[in-house]
Write a structure and sequence with these properties.
This protein has 246 residues and is of the alpha/beta class. It is built from 11 helices and 6 strands. It has a 6-stranded parallel beta sheet, sandwiched between helices. Helix 1 runs antiparallel to helix 5, helix 3 packs across helix 4 and helix 4 packs across helix 5. The longest helix has 19 residues. The chain is elongated, with a radius of gyration of 19 Å. It starts with 24 loop residues before the first strand and ends with a helix.
Length: 246
């Protein structure tokens, strides 16, 4: 499935206030909505770096930190645009390219990635995330909708979800309307009956509006709202959102 760029909303289009009565299902982002992602990625990259020192010392010496691997990732993105949406494939192939350039065995990319991926699932949830998921799941079917590669079951929160859609598995990611529509259809809901919850003004808010959904912006940093990304509700925490849905 090819990725297409969404059209722009007119700046004059302002989202109306949240209509709780319309909500029949919830889609929710994962990274930076339920947990902070970068501490997890940083730790996983540290585990990977240590493994490379032991099993691929040439690569560890040539690419000692995340910054040094950035050029490798850019090279892979340029050469393999078909996997750009798939963060797991991008990470694995970037490791493979680094191994190849350094003269180490490129077959080590698979076990190296699996080690990184396992550590990537060890997230530290925001303090109110579990309570929010319990609240939402008791009232609505909840579907995970993420451009990242976290696995809700390996993270340990799968029991709260009726399904999960990721860009890597679906073939396109947010803000493409198709992934929003597929998530809604998976719980037999029309897009207008779904509230999407996420932290990113473009991927989550803009994407949900383009897909015809209501949008809840978990705006922890209190960023200004742009007219074309006006959510139906703008809150600083999942707790505040749940309070509005009671």
């Amino acid at each position: 499935m090819s990725e297409t760029k969404p059209s722009s909303l007119s700046p004059e289009i302002i989202a109306p206030a949240l209509n709780v009565q319309r909500i029949q299902a919830i889609t929710i982002d994962l990274d930076d909505t339920l947990w902070p992602v970068w501490p997890t990625i940083t730790r996983a990259e540290g585990v990977l770096a240590q493994w490379l020192k032991e099993h691929a010392p040439n690569t560890a010496a040539s690419f000692p930190d995340a910054r040094s691997l950035r050029a490798i990732r850019e090279k892979v993105e340029a050469e393999r645009p078909e996997i750009r949406h798939d963060l797991s494939a991008m990470r694995r192939e970037s490791i493979r390219e680094a191994l190849t350039q350094s003269g180490d065995d490129p077959a080590l990319a698979d076990p190296a990635f699996e080690l990184f991926f396992a550590e990537r699932q060890r997230v530290d949830l925001f303090d109110d995330a579990l309570a929010a998921l319990e609240f939402l799941a008791a009232r609505y079917p909840v579907v995970a909708l993420s451009n990242g590669n976290a696995d809700i079951h390996r993270v340990g929160i799968g029991r709260y979800f009726k399904g999960a859609f990721s860009a890597s598995q679906f073939g396109v990611g947010k803000p493409d309307a198709r992934i929003f529509h597929a998530a809604a259809a998976s719980v037999h809901a029309q897009p207008e009956a779904v509230l999407h919850v996420g932290d990113d003004a473009h991927l989550d808010v803009f994407g949900a509006l383009q897909a015809g959904m209501q949008a809840a912006w978990i705006n922890m940093q209190v960023q200004p709202v742009e007219p074309e990304r006006q959510p139906h509700v703008n809150v600083q925490s999942l707790t505040q959102l749940c309070d509005l849905l009671r």
